[in-house]
Design brief:
alpha/beta, nine-stranded mixed sheet, six-stranded parallel sheet, globular, binds 6-O-phosphono-beta-D-glucopyranose
Length: about 500
């Protein structure tokens, strides 16, 4: 059964009360941290409230601090968004939670955790999920301890891991080898939360479910592909973490590259996780290492005319080391050396402190050959707007309505907010954690995929660090360095500015 169908089946079974009542225990390792507070507990509450989880699911927080369940919920409160009418249900959810305090390094602490889990299971077959919302420094010891003491005695055990998955090929391989020495690939769920987003998941259906797109999805028809991620805010006190990684590791090497593989891969033999991941790896294997000459790096500086935070540059963040050359913006051009894509540039662009929040995939088609319209045609574009305002729209030429016989740009527009008014799009984490319960790895990153991703970026990352390559300054709230636009133009992306998509009136 395909991953999505499995989730749907689990949801149906749960709703109809036919789900087996074996205990499922969801352990949040690092329950005191930011990720747990902002994402994991709100996700678990959402799933619980919607009745998506197996009936007998218990949530166990684990961290070093002396905490209580009420304390965790209080910290998470702004993100849980519990409505007045949901108070009774929320109380029920809280009662399904436990907290265990313990060290990350001592085996005895994990034996204690195991004893608590066994108390919940009461000798029955039970399944355990460990979410590792932890700093990289304790990752190895925690996983070693889980394997030694906390594996489910009768059911399955799955571990969910979050980036950073290392900093380069070598450190990532060390982590992967460590994980593979403890767990099988089926037990490891590497999260890239972009794979849980509605429009990213839609890519496969759009491509392989439509005869109008499939046949033109290649170098004969497509001139360039641009995948963009923009955020309108800076590091906001998170500079300490960010400075060690930079925007390439934070966003491009994972989120944008994952999207690229879904845009570029061949049709998998089925929707099975392994079939899909096999195709994604093949794309990466056809990509040469990224070269500095195909990259523009930027770092934001304050805008003296801006409001509040906009006045502050990256280097004004007190958590950022003085004189740091870490990029907060990067644009890079990739080529995929295979029969379908040879010569087509894939331009990946991401940055913080830019003019808007937006993530999208823009497929730009060639001009029709043999122009009979005196150069009045603009290139067709198919845009998959990931966020905000999820949409798929196609920019194309039509006859100017009325007496005129000249071409004019217009669009075919599927904006989700207008077309699917009553549908709630779940957060990426809601889908992905549910997939782990269901055992579907379709939307998770496999070990070999990760290794290939690092191969493509590692030489460049080392070069940037060793040579202290200076990023181009760009102003907070702007479009980023103009050098990035120039590079895109050089690589066959045509920006005319003659057309702008506007969100339809909802
Ligand atoms: C995270 C990055 O992976 O993704 C953050 O570490 C970034 O720097 C975030 O802000 C963006 O996620 P989203 O879902 O808000 O687009």
């Amino acid at each position: 059964m395909a991953g999505g169908d499995k989730s749907a089946q689990l949801i149906r079974d749960t709703m109809e009360g036919t789900e087996q009542t074996v205990p499922h225990i969801f352990v949040v390792m690092g329950a005191s941290g930011d990720l747990a507070k902002k994402k994991i507990y709100p996700t678990l509450w959402w799933q619980y409230r919607e009745g998506l989880l197996p009936k007998n699911t218990i949530f166990v927080g684990y961290a070093r601090s002396a905490l209580t369940v009420d304390g965790i919920m209080a910290k998470s409160q702004p993100y849980l968004k519990v409505k007045d009418t949901e108070q009774a249900k929320f109380k029920e959810f809280v009662s399904m939670n436990k907290y265990v305090k313990g060290s990350y390094s001592e085996r005895s602490a994990f034996e204690n955790l195991d004893a608590e889990l066994k108390k919940i299971e009461q000798g029955q077959e039970g399944n355990r999920l460990f979410y590792l919302a932890l700093p990289p420094s304790v990752f190895m010891e925690v996983t070693t301890n889980i394997k030694a003491t906390c594996m489910s005695p009768k059911g399955w055990t799955r571990v969910i891991v979050e980036k950073p998955f290392g900093k380069d090929s070598e450190s990532s391989a060390k982590l992967s080898n460590h994980l593979s020495s403890l767990f099988s690939e089926e037990e490891i769920y590497r999260i890239d939360h972009y794979l849980g987003k509605e429009m990213v998941q839609n890519l496969m259906i759009l491509r392989f479910g439509n005869m109008i797109f499939g046949p033109s999805w290649n170098r004969n028809h497509i001139a360039s592909v641009v995948i963009t991620f923009k955020e309108p805010f800076g590091t906001q006190g998170r500079g300490g973490y960010f400075d060690e990684f930079g925007i390439i590791r934070d966003v491009m090497q994972n989120h944008l590259l994952q999207i690229l593989t879904l845009v570029a891969m061949e049709k998998p033999v089925s929707t099975d996780a392994e079939a899909i991941r096999n195709e994604k790896v093949k794309v990466l294997r056809c990509m040469p290492e990224l070269k500095l000459e195909n990259v523009v790096l930027g770092q934001y500086v304050g805008n003296p005319d801006g409001k509040g935070d906009e006045k502050l540059g990256y280097l004004d963040d007190s958590t950022v080391p003085k004189g740091s050359v870490t990029p907060t913006f990067a644009a890079a051009v990739f080529y995929i050396c295979n029969e379908r894509w040879d010569g087509v540039p894939f331009i990946l662009k991401c940055g913080k402190a830019l003019n808007e929040r937006k993530a999208e995939v823009r497929i730009q088609f060639h001009e029709p050959p043999g122009d009979i319209f005196q150069s009045q045609l603009q290139r067709n574009e198919l845009v998959i707007r990931v966020q905000p305002d999820e949409a798929v729209y196609c920019k194309f030429m039509t006859k100017k309505p009325g007496m005129s016989f000249s071409p004019v740009e217009t669009e075919l527009d599927l904006t989700y907010g207008a077309r699917y008014k009553d549908v709630v799009l779940p957060d990426a984490y809601v889908r992905l954690i549910l997939d782990v319960f269901c055992g579907s790895q379709m939307h998770f990153v496999r070990t070999d995929e990760l290794a290939e991703a690092w191969r493509i970026f590692t030489p460049l990352l080392h070069q940037i660090e060793n040579d202290k390559i200076k990023p181009v300054p760009y102003t907070y709230g702007g479009r980023g360095p103009s050098e990035a636009d120039e590079m895109a133009a050089k690589h066959n992306f045509r920006f005319t500015g003659t057309y702008k998509w506007t969100k339809p009136q909802l």
